[in-house]
């Protein structure tokens, strides 16, 4: 099994006042030649956005973008027909930028900060027609069991959002002391494990809140919650 450890404190950080951004991989003004991507996973940003603030209209193309609000509410609009659509905690948003989209995203609250993960995955097909998806996922359905959030458009899994890549995003909330065996889709895949909060153990690695571990060249591995833990899996082709 091949592994790469990314401790929370070692992430790139940008303080823009209204935006506190943590970058697991090289992004914007943060560059680390050893942290360019993990397989098809290009960006893993952990952002905190001040009330009423956000990103004005800007373009994207040929990227699969997944946004997961962890606290607060995001408001999104784009040139595909969404006009200030709220994306709440517990929901997941996907956007296939394809041939090109313009969008804006802001904190939808005037009082509370917004914390979110934004994930960019390199697509397996370029210049597709842009598309948008959004769905709420119940926390009860990931209690000590895997909940699938996002799969490929070619995958017939029902209930998941779709992107143009043979990737799987999933979550699990583990009670302290519970173990879970994660099975990878193929030998050509790896999985980036982000500890949203809590503490867990994978092999000889002990992960705490916002620590991450990339795992590849194995068919499965076991995680054990050292305390109650919320975990995000991003499985991608390597």
TrEMBL record:
Binds 1 Fe cation per subunit. Residues 154-236 form the Quercetin 2,3-dioxygenase C-terminal cupin domain. Residues 13-121 form the Pirin N-terminal domain. CDD domains: cupin_Yhhw_N (cd02910). Fe cation binds at residues 58, 60, 103, 105. SUPFAM superfamilies: RmlC-like cupins (SSF51182). Keywords: Iron, Metal-binding. One of its GO terms (molecular function) is metal ion binding. InterPro entries: Pirin, Pirin_N_dom, Quercetinase_C, RmlC-like_jellyroll, RmlC_Cupin_sf. Its cofactor is Fe cation. Pfam families: Pirin, Pirin_C_2. Belongs to the pirin family. This is Pirin N-terminal domain-containing protein.
């Amino acid at each position: 099994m091949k592994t790469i450890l990314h401790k929370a404190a070692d992430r790139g950080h940008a303080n823009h006042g209204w935006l506190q951004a943590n970058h697991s991989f090289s992004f914007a003004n943060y560059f680390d030649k050893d942290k360019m991507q993990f397989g098809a996973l290009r960006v893993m940003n952990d952002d905190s956005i001040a009330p009423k603030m956000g990103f004005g209209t800007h373009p994207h193309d040929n990227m699969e973008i997944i946004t997961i609000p962890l606290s607060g509410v995001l408001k999104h609009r784009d040139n595909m027909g969404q006009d200030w659509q709220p994306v709440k905690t517990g929901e997941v948003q996907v956007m296939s930028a394809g041939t090109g989209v313009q969008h804006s995203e802001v904190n939808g609250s005037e009082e509370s900060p917004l914390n979110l993960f934004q994930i960019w995955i390199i697509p397996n097909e370029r210049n597709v027609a842009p598309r948008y998806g959004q769905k709420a996922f119940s926390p009860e359905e990931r209690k000590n069991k895997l909940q699938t959030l996002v799969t490929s458009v070619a995958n017939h899994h029902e209930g998941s959002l779709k992107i143009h890549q043979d990737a799987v995003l999933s979550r699990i909330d583990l009670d302290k002391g519970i173990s879970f065996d994660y099975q990878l889709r193929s030998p050509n895949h790896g999985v980036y494990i982000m500890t949203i909060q809590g503490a867990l153990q994978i092999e000889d690695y002990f992960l705490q809140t916002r620590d991450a571990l990339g795992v590849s060249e194995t068919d499965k591995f076991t995680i054990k919650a050292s305390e109650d833990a919320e975990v995000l899996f991003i499985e991608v082709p390597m």
